[in-house]
Amino acid sequence: MTASDPAQSVGTFPPTADAKSAMGWMHTARFLTTAAQLHQLPTVEVPEIAFVGRSNAGKSSCINTLTQQKQLAFASKKPGRTQHINLFSLGRQNTTDAVLADLPGYGYAAVSRSDKMRWQQVMVNYLVHRESLTGIVLLCDPRLGLTGLDEALLEVVRPRVEDGLKFLVLLTKADKLTRAEQTKALSIARLQTGGGEVRMFSALKKQGVDEAALLLWQWAHPQAEAVAPIAPADSTLKF
């Protein structure tokens, strides 16, 4: 058994967690592997949580903020050029009790149609067939709302969500909206989304960071309990 193998090295579930300990858990994230195709990914026997979203939705910033690591997720200067699925393991030293998956961003206009189709197929294959997938975090710029591409992705994962797959929409860049605009954006996203939860998130102002970390910890540790509520009522809309 090797500590770096997520299929074999499973950490002990903590009995309880609050936002602080959940953030500490997120900080343990380290690079595991990268792959251009689903079959190139290692078999994982711990919960796997995928981050998806349009290019420029703030996905890399979100992952780096949650893990408190400035360069864990690569933010390309040329959006849409990151073509691989990147995996990061989570857990105390010599253990892995969850895996984060950073999927390629989609929707960038400067990318060729053939590349778009290829990346889209890789993403669909992953979302539909990845057995270890436990939860999905969809990043969306609330100033744009859920686009047609986002809604197409929702349709792809809907059967798995109905079967119990966890789902969260994070409306990023919340610092660019007033409180009234945030409330409106949450309401619109709730109407557009058929399952999961919707939350505001700001990497700059750290809005929603603790709550998101605690929720992801709960996804990865379903046998454990949370000490504190996940989020205040005005920042969460449940379906």
TrEMBL record:
- Single annotated GO MF: metal ion binding
**What Pfam family does this protein match (any one)?**
MMR_HSR1
What SUPFAM superfamilies does this protein map onto?
P-loop containing nucleoside triphosphate hydrolases (SSF52540)
Q: Which residues form the EngB-type G domain?
A: 45-222
Q: Does the keyword Nucleotide-binding apply?
A: yes
- Transmembrane ranges, per UniProt, are none
One GO biological process from the UniProt record? division septum assembly
What are the record keywords, sorted?
Cell cycle, Cell division, GTP-binding, Magnesium, Metal-binding, Nucleotide-binding, Septation
- Give a yes or no for keyword Metal-binding in this entry: yes
Q: Give cofactor(s), names only.
A: Mg(2+)
Q: Which domain of life, per UniProt?
A: Bacteria
Instruction: Fetch the InterPro entries from UniProt.
Output: G_ENGB_dom (IPR030393), GTP-bd (IPR006073), GTP-bd_ribosome_bio_YsxC (IPR019987), P-loop_NTPase (IPR027417)
A single Gene Ontology CC annotation of this entry is: cytosol
Q: Which NCBIfam families match?
A: GTPase_YsxC (TIGR03598)
What is the stated purpose of this protein? Necessary for normal cell division and for the maintenance of normal septation.
Annotated family: Belongs to the TRAFAC class TrmE-Era-EngA-EngB-Septin-like GTPase superfamily. EngB GTPase family.
Question: What name goes with this protein?
Answer: Probable GTP-binding protein EngB
Q: Which species does the entry assign this protein to?
A: Simplicispira hankyongi
Q: Which gene encodes it?
A: engB
